[in-house]
Each structure stands twice: as structure tokens, then as C-alpha cells.
Write a structure and sequence with these properties.
The protein contains 13 helices and nine strands. It has 414 residues and is an alpha+beta fold. The radius of gyration is 23 Å and the shape is globular. The structure holds ligand L6N33NVT and fe (ii) ion (FE2). It comes from Naumannella cuiyingiana. This is Deferrochelatase.
């Protein structure tokens, strides 16, 4: 029997409690009140042409983990990916990682779920899996490593920590409850014990991008709206052009059709320096207003920026070295990214400064056209760069979606 995590806390008691609340509410309003839908009860389908966690509306919390594969045995890796598929299909629907659950198995054996999500709703959990460039040669798959899956080049000003970079596999867990996201990664790591080990992981909060027009634009750690001009789920043609891997582009990519590429950058933001910067300078550096997120050329948040508009003295209203001017499709051969990043604060440094910033995540159809040229431009010319330090990095091929009965990585390893 598969019980939902809510079921585990006692179906009878829960039903009674809901019934009583519903009755009281109905009486007070003089009608039978439907309780408002609980957003934490939301689930996203695990199966489909694309993995969830890319075009699905961005949740509020993140636990991202990169794994090293400890074995050279291809069958063992395939077994792990099968086991991860089963667990992920369950976890994302609000079930325990294994069929016995945290307390239902043998008293003499470790439980097949760690238990910290008992009683928690599904919380919109999505789990998104990717494979890194280093995996291929080790498993005799060199011929199937796409040209696009080449480690990112060094960019000017990079200060990358190898202990926060790269990895053979990655899992992005997003949920509206941090404990649900952490629980998912912990259980996947537990299932993988002996085959994989966590290389590094990153927690995030306050999604810094909206990926649906239904979502209000959140703010980053510099206080600016972030995600205004992002690609949105409601734009399937643009997602086809800029996010998904198409058929027939590179024979080495045939197993990846319907997948994507994920670029992760841990970007420290020098919060204390920014906080001593005038509002005028902050807006000049971004190219948008802080209050509304509107382009400095005028209009509301969603107005198109006019890079030719000039103000007093003939100077452009949007500084050509502002972040928005240099990241805009006009400056990047029409390229757009699906950004899905999160704020992070990992405590404070010994100097009392916040170890904080943006864990930048972008899903792209090809990093060679959709990230590398843009980041090269930003790293050398963007006025924002003065306030940033890139401290972690990784590139993964994001596996295509899984059909019922299929498994993650099947097209690559079967
Ligand atoms: C290489 C790609 C990008 C990196 C790295 C990056 C870092 C970064 N961005 C902000 C804040 C904002 N970015 C905004 C827009 C924006 N940024 C990128 C790309 C990268 N950003 C793009 C493609 C865009 C959209 C440009 C456009 O089409 O107009 C904005 C404006 C609001 C918005 O549209 O999202 C802000 C604010 C930070 C703080 C940061 C590193 C920490
Ligand atoms: Fe940006």
C-alpha cells in the first residue's frame, strides 16, 4: 500500500479535523464552504516529455546537489538511476522514498525513508537530474558526449572553488518547503551510498526568477526585481528555440532530445559594498528602477527597454554598460535564457560580511550559444561585475523526461 506522507499521520484524525473545520466555516458563512486550495498540496507530474523543474513555475526553495560517481561499472550506474527514478516518482507525489516508509519496514533494518518529511505535504517538489562532462569517458561513452557538453571556459574575474564546482551528476530539488527539498536530496544520497557521494550542495531561498506569467517577480539580494524579462512557461515556441535540445542537431546528442543544458554559477554578491552605494548608482548599474523594476528608459516593469532613448545632455537613459543592456537579447544575437536561480546566505565571513549571493541556474539549448558568449561579455564589461565574485560553477546535460515505466538515463545507458 502506498500511503501519502499525510496518510502516515493518521487518516481518520485528519479527516475528522478537516470535517470539523469545514462544518464550522460552513455554518459561519451560511453555506457549505470549500476550503481554499492549499498551495503546499500541489504536485507536479514526474513523467513527461521534459523533466519537471525547468518550465514548471519556480518554487521558493532549493537544495541543489552535485555527485561524484564512485564506480566504473556501467550496470551499477544504471541500477542507481533506476532506483533514483522510482524514488523521485514517489517523492514528487508526496510519498515516502521507499514502499515501507520511515517506520513501516523491519525493526532490524534501516528505514527506506529518513522520516523528516512525515506529515509534510508534497510542497510542489520537483527533482531534475543531469549528467556532467566527466562521466562519459569513464563509462566508455566518449562517442556520446555532445560537443556542447564541454566544461565551461574560465571567465575574467572567476574565483572558482573546486569544492563548489562540477560533478558527474546533479540533482536540483525545488519545493515550497525547504525541509521537503532537503529530505529529497538526503534520500537520493542515501539510496546512492556506495555508488555516488555528494561532492557539494547548495541551499537557496526566495526564487530569483519567475518562470510563469502567473508569478510575481521576486527580488534578489541587491533588492532588485529579478526575472522580469525571463523566458516563461507560457512561451512554448521560445522554449523550443532557447531551452530544449532539438532532434537532429548533433548525432552525439540523439539521447538528449527533449533535454536541456544546465549552467550553475554560485555568485557571491558584495552586499556591504552595495549597501553603501547610492540608489542612483544601483539603478544605473542594473539599468532598471529599484521600486518597480521598470527600464530606466521609461514605462512599467514589463515595458521593452529603449536603449537609444537619451536624457538631458544626450546621454543614454540606460547605461550601455548596465547589466540589462549587456544581457538583453539585442546585445546577444537574440539569445534568451531560462533563468531559475535562488538567493543564498551561507552565514557570515570572519570579517562579518554576509556570505551571500545568487545561485544562478539557467537552462539552455546550447551553452556555446546561450551562456558562454553572454557571460564573456558580462565578465569583461558589465558594471555589475564590480559587485560580484563567481565562486562555483558547473555544466550538466539535463536528461530528457521519463515516460511511465522508463528510467532516467535510459536513452544514454540502456
Ligand atoms: C550570463 C548570464 C547572467 C548572469 C551570470 C547574471 C547574473 C546576475 N543577474 C543579476 C540581476 C539581474 N539580472 C537581470 C536580467 C538579466 N540577467 C541575465 C543574465 C545573467 N545574469 C539576463 C539574460 C537578463 C535579462 C535581460 C533582458 O532580457 O532584459 C535583472 C533585470 C530584471 C530581469 O529581467 O530579470 C536583474 C536585476 C544579478 C544580481 C546577478 C548576479 C549575482
Ligand atoms: Fe542578470
Amino acid at each position: 500500500m502506498t500511503l501519502s506522507r499525510r496518510g502516515l499521520i493518521g487518516a481518520a484524525g485528519g479527516a475528522a479535523a478537516v470535517g470539523a473545520a469545514g462544518l464550522a466555516g460552513g455554518l459561519a458563512l451560511g453555506r457549505t464552504a470549500e476550503p481554499p486550495p492549499d498551495p503546499l498540496a500541489r504536485t507536479y507530474p514526474f513523467h513527461g516529455a521534459h523533466q519537471a523543474g525547468i518550465a514548471t513555475p519556480a518554487q521558493d526553495r532549493l537544495h541543489f546537489a552535485a555527485f561524484d560517481v564512485l564506480t566504473d561499472d556501467r550496470a551499477k550506474l544504471a541500477r542507481l538511476l533506476r532506483a533514483w527514478t522510482t524514488a523521485a516518482a514517489r517523492l514528487t507525489q508526496g510519498l515516502a522514498a521507499g514502499e515501507q516508509g520511515p517506520t513501516g519496514g523491519s525493526y532490524q533494518a534501516p528505514p527506506d525513508d529518513t522520516g523528516e518529511a512525515i506529515g509534510l505535504p508534497p510542497s510542489g517538489l520537483t527533482l531534475t537530474f543531469g549528467v556532467g562532462p566527466a562521466l562519459f569517458d569513464r563509462f566508455g561513452l566518449g562517442q556520446r558526449r555532445p560537443e556542447a557538453l564541454t566544461p565551461l571556459p574560465a571567465f575574467p574575474g572567476d574565483a572558482l572553488d573546486p569544492d563548489r564546482s562540477d560533478g558527474d551528476l546533479c540533482v536540483q530539488a525545488c519545493a515550497d518547503d525547504p525541509q521537503v527539498a532537503v529530505h529529497a536530496i538526503r534520500n537520493l544520497a542515501r539510496i546512492g551510498m556506495g555508488t555516488v557521494s555528494v561532492r557539494w550542495s547548495q541551499l537557496g531561498f526566495g526564487r530569483t526568477s519567475s518562470t510563469s506569467t502567473a508569478q510575481p517577480t521576486p527580488r534578489n539580494m541587491f533588492g532588485f526585481k529579478d526575472g522580469t524579462a525571463n523566458l516563461k512557461a507560457e512561451e512554448p515556441d521560445l522554449l523550443d528555440r532557447h531551452v530544449w535540445v532539438p532532434a537532429g542537431r548533433d548525432p552525439r546528442e540523439d539521447w538528449l532530445v527533449g533535454g536541456s543544458y544546465l549552467v550553475a554559477r554560485r555568485i557571491n554578491m558584495t552586499i556591504e559594498t552595495w549597501d553603501r552605494t547610492s540608489l542612483a548608482e544601483q539603478e544605473r548599474v542594473i539599468g532598471r528602477s529599484k521600486a518597480e523594476g521598470a527600464p530606466l528608459s521609461g514605462g512599467d516593469e514589463f515595458a521593452a527597454p529603449d536603449f537609444a532613448a537619451a536624457g538631458r545632455g544626450g546621454l543614454p537613459l540606460i547605461d550601455p554598460r548596465s547589466h540589462v543592456a549587456l544581457a538583453h537579447p539585442d546585445a546577444n544575437d537574440g539569445v534568451q535564457l531560462l533563468r531559475r536561480g535562488y538567493n543564498f546566505v551561507d552565514g557570515s565571513t570572519r570579517l562579518g560580511r554576509l556570505d551571500a549571493g545568487l545561485f544562478f541556474l539557467a537552462f539552455v539549448t546550447d551553452p556555446r550559444t546561450h551562456f558562454i558568449p553572454m557571460q564573456t561579455r558580462l565578465a569583461s564589461r558589465d558594471a555589475l561585475q564590480e559587485y560580484l565574485r563567481h565562486t562555483g560553477s558547473g555544466l550538466w546535460a539535463v536528461l530528457p523526461g521519463v515516460n511511465e515505466g522508463g528510467w532516467l538515463g535510459e536513452t544514454l545507458l540502456a
